[in-house]
Every structure is written in C-alpha cells, then in structure tokens.
Amino acid sequence: MKASAAAHPIQGLxxxxxxxxxxxxxxxxxxxxxxxxxxxxHTTVEFGHEHDHATIDRVQASERDMERIRDVIDPLREEAxxxxxxxxxxxxxxxxxxxxGASASGFAALTVAAAAALGLELSLEELSRYARRGAGSASxxxxxxxxxxxxxxxxxxxxxxxxxxxxxMDLAMLVALVPAHKFTELAHKxxxxxxxxxxRLEYVPTVLDRMxxxxxxxxxxxxxxxxxxxxxxxxxxxxxxxxxxxLWRPETVKVILEVxxxxxxGVRCYFSIDTGATVYINAHAADVDLIRGxxxxxxxxxxxxxxxxxxxxxxxxxF
Length: 319
Hints:
The protein is of the alpha+beta class. It contains nine helices and 16 strands. It has helices at 63-80, 102-117, 124-132, 138-143, 184-190, 197-217, 220-240, 250-264, 288-296, and strands at 2-7, 10-14, 19-21, 26-27, 31-37, 41-49, 53-56, 59-60, 85-92, 146-149, 160-163, 172-176, 269-272, 279-283, 302-307, 312-314. A hairpin with a 2-residue loop joins strand 7 (53-56) and strand 8 (59-60).
C-alpha cells in the first residue's frame, strides 16, 4: 500500500480563472496548458497509518494543505474501500509558490501515487478528475504534454485530455524567475468582481480551438501570440477585481518590455504569465541562448524548459 509518482508543473496557455463550483473545483470554461520539464514533483504515499500526515518540501503540511490533500485522497479511498490513514512526502526540484505551477504537479503526483498505492487501475483521464479536486491545473499535469481541461457539466466529465502535437515541435520555454508570493485561490474567488470577467467568458471559447489547432500543427508563433494575449486578459481581470491584485513586480514588467523589444528586432518570442510574477518566454529553440543572455542581463535568473510528459509511477520512494 505504498507507491511513488512524479509529475511536471504546467504553463497555462489558455488559462483558467475562477471556479463555478469551489468544492469540486469546476471551472467556468475549458483551458489548455503545457507541462514544463525537467521541473517535477516527486511524491510518495503510503496507506495503513492511524492518521493522515503529510510533508511538502520537508515542512509539515498546513491545515489548508491537508484539506486540499484530503479532497483528492478521500474519494480515492472511497473508490478502493480503504479507511486507513495516509502518509505523504512530497518534494519539488524547483521553487514553489512563485507562479511555476507547483500545485499542479504536486496534486498530479499525489493522485497517481495514491491510486497506485490503493491498487486502483484508472486511466490518466480518469485520474485527472481526482487531481482536479486538489488544484484545477493538476488535471492537466496528470495527462501531460499539451492538455485541454474540459469544464464539463459536473464532476464526472470535467476531465483533462492530452492534445496531440508533433514530436519535433520547435518550442523552447525560458522561465524568468521573479520571486513573489502568489495568491491563486484568492485570485480565483475575486474574478466575479471584475467588470471584465464577462468579456473573458465570451472571448475564451473563440480561441480554445485556435490554440488546440496551433498545438496540433506545432505552430510555435501562433501559440505564443495567443498565450500572450490571454496573459494580458487574465491579469487585467486580476487587477480590476475587488481586491485589485497586482501580482506583477518591477522585474516582471522589465521582462515583458525586453520581450517586446526583442520581437521588434526580429526575434520571435512571446511572454506568458500565470497567476504570479514569474514570466515564461515561449520561443524557437535556436533563439534561446540569445534570449537568455538578454534576460539575465537584466539581473534575472532563468531556467530553460521543454515539453514534459504525463504523470507517472516511480520506483524510488522518499521514505
């Protein structure tokens, strides 16, 4: 009754923002993301304990963390007919809580490890439904690669499916790390108070199929353009909600302006920002070294990522 799993975090391309059902974490609309390797979360789960206990990056999980962990674990326990307590140990090999999608990889790895420990034989799409209850984006981290999370009509059909893409896609993702605590849950609750949220609900359905088509064709530039526009729309809503959440930092703006300057010079690169201050730069692989030099010249640390696969069972345990 012990198993381990690993999963990659995600970059939102057409991002989700807001929940129509907070308990089941059902979104208002579909969304599309890409997993970012080699960053990953490694998680070990074991059942048979008296109580539930979890540590994340060697720190005991908070009360809120345990609530979200049980949102995933309890339905899996019920499915398996198991009533014992659970021990979980989870480690990230990248900075968490700064907009790199650690909750996505964390709950994806938890779901796959827990299901394996319980002996449940479920497809990745079925597992994405359980992962969604911990963090919406975790549904897409389960299925990996480029994935589309379908809003669905309820719990059963709000799942993620991988979007096929060319194996030789010329996409590189440079991450400009801007450390700043993010408040994703608060941002999701705040969306309805923005005067622009209704416009987003009308806009997103018009671009989801365009993004999926770009992924299937391997069109890096179209993907980059659509993700950049989506970024501006999402943060416009965040900034105009009741809490006026400005999540960007001066370094964030520096990166945005540098990306736009490089594009004017003929370098095909595009910025993308999830709920936080850290910036993804989507570009062609041949331009990565040039872009890295320009961003690090601003005094900002970078990481280079490629497209990561689905969540997977791992042989190595953390305890």
